[in-house]
Amino acid sequence: MNWINAFNMNWINAFNMNWINAFNMNWIKVFNVLVLLLIVFNNRTVAQKLVVDDPLSSTAIVKGEIQKISTGGLFTDKGWQAIGQGDYLMIEVSDEAGFEGSLNVDILNLNGQIIGDKDGSGKIHFLSMFSNSVADHHAEDGATSNDALWTLRTGFDENGNPRYGQNFKILWASKGAKRTENNDYHEEIVQISKDWKWVSIPYTFTVRWSQKGKSIEVFIDGNLVFRGQWLNQVSPLRYIYLAKSPDFNTLVGSWFSNLKVYAH
What we know:
The chain has two domains: 1-47; 51-263, Jelly Rolls.
């Protein structure tokens, strides 16, 4: 009987311990998952803080915008459109998203294959953001060693061909415009997938910058196409330019709409 009792007790104890351990382990796993979901939810909430939401269908200044200046161009139900050389839209926003933020904008009729037929020749900065109101890339034109900036460039070469084929170029600096002292200015061609087509449908461009994350990223329709370093920013990004920056040529014929700026 002692032997049987001892066997039964050991078996029962082992069963109970295994059941308790399994219960505890499962509970711990559930708890860890809940904590992880809470962290993700909180981060997403912060990342999605909307600072500016502008359909770009009128001259009206929306919350988060300080000024909105259309040099030429037209506001339509489709958004704002540049209709001739020299046209651009500049929007100054609050600096709430200046160091940790992202910009989204829809562009309709962005066809890199026919830009040369529309716009003459040269470089086209179709989407830009600057910390400096001068809004330039070069020291000799008023940019400084403290400037933060990024620009998406297209255009075409001297033969009228698309400047970068199916691709485009990004120009960026977290601190210091081109030819300023100790700048981190860079230029790089963004290689889009081989099956990419610039066609006359809306594309959503997203540019995200993060001093904490030390990176700048570009997305098209949610797909990451570029990631670069963003290491030294000291000045908040504030000045948005659509269709062109103050220098170079205009992206004529495309509509810009649904501008959103988020603070991260």
